Amino acid sequence: MSAATILVVSSVIGSGVYKKVAPISAELQSPTLVLLCWILAGVISLCGALSNAEIASMLADSGGEYVYFRRIYGRFIAFIYGWSTFAVIKTASIASIAYVFSQSFHSLITLPNLPDTVASIEFLGLFKPFENFGVKGLTILLILLLTFLNTRGLKGASFLSNSITMLVIVGLTLIVILGLSMGGGSFSNIQTPATTYIPRDWTDFALIKAIFGAMLAAFWAYEGWNTVGFIGGEIQNPNKNLPLALFGGMMIIIGAYALVNFTYLYVMPIDSIIAVHKSQNEIAAVAVIRSFAGNVGAIILSLLILFTTFGCTNSTILMPPRIYYAMAKDGLFFKSAADIHPKFHTPNNALWIQGVWACILVLSGSFDQLTDMLIFAAFFFYGATALGVFVLRIREPNTPRPYKVWGYPVVPALFVIFCFALIIITLFSHPREAGIGLGLMLTGLPFYFYWNKEKK
Question: What is the pTM of this model?
């Protein structure tokens, strides 16, 4: 396996596969459809990676997505991307990963909650910020702690990133081997839908909505594919080797995810997995392990997830302030985000702005609501980047391209169409998450006009 393929796998594979089978099962009610959803989401992610890699490798030294959105579409779209990264995409990612850390801790030591009279307080008919407050409180503490450590330029935490992928792979391998050999499962579990399952024709819009809603959950486990194109400027013969690395890496991940989820559904009937989803703080992988390996097995897996999500939260906090810094330099973000700490040489203010907002998002919803919201928002820009392939092919035909997308124009066109369909159908299937995500993206408009006017 090439180094580039390994990099693709390590950029994508993460903790989402431990948890997302539960909401997908609740959405689709059929083991066959659940497995199909994981494969379909992986194939679509592959098309996105193959498409977006042309832009990323072409502009690899430009400073990241904010800068190349500015080059493709201009200052306004670049700002909307940067603001959405702050308001929804990266901050909700921080909140979501930290949420899984707290749920894993909760499976080891039960966290206290507030009285029902407080927990049931609702804001705007949408939010219950004090519900499940034990898990939310620990999530907020973790975000604030890691934000503080990053403002102090902690170098020692970087070793975590090198261990995360290996630990996740070890955990998934153990689930598959132990689940299939001693899990006491049955192929009848794979063949038996939920008791509430209603057979539908493939042309039924209700089934289409359910599949797209389920893929919102699956795409969280595939997050990271949009960053792998940046290796295009660093490998030999990228026009040949980059698509091979992307294709090989994504096929490994799709196969791994399909096998792990097959194991979940083989060991536990889908009704039991749906019950895990309804239990709020249970993690599907931990529930499966507990079903045949008892509390000892569940504790070991919970500890592994604790370590991996701690490291993932840290690395997710570390990167986005670069975008806020670039925006502040352009006069399109809070001026203080461009300040560098005189002693620790870190973007101190940008990190704290990000950390506080991520904590507010923790209070806004559950783990699945947060991930659905950020995936909905992210696909606006995934589609826009793929569309940029066509824009730059027309506008800058002579600009050097280390890699040209395989299957052009079909592959990027199909991906753009899918992104558009996902956005529209999510507005119907998950109106709360889509509405909040879209609303947070649009909150940047008054800031843009104010900062733009001030700059002029």
Answer: 0.89
